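User: structure tokens for Transposase, please.
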Amino acid sequence: MRGGDVRTGELFSYVDLEDRVRKDHPLRAIRQIVNDALVSLERDFAALYSPIGRPSIAPEKLLRAMLLQAFYSIRSERLLMERLEYDLLFRWFVDLGIDDPAWDHSVFSKNRDRLLDGDIAAKFLGAIPRRMGLHLRGRRL
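Assistant: Done. Predicted tokens:
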């Protein structure tokens, strides 16, 4: 039987991003390592941001998005934001909700520069190999 081409137009849809990512997807292990590394930088994040003013993009989300940009060779922040807008895997990895809009590319760049200037990105990248070693030691290969 041929399927129809017309959408039925459901009023609501619930998509659980966790269920949409394969259990054996390589980004699952990477995400766990990244999240562990981000927890270790909590004090650094607190020192970098003021308690008053407009909220910024969460540094944890920013760093996860920057990793995706490197992993998938995305050549600009504009293209990264476009990809975040429609790619469920990217939304899951960054921890962006299904209904949350992707950020403006210029806001993303400005927030990224704050992390680079504050040496947070370097500390983050330094923490990942240590976490990776801990992660691999706990696994049987």
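User: Anything notable?

Assistant: Helices lie at 17-20, 26-39, 42-48, 59-71, 77-86, 88-94, 105-117, 120-137.
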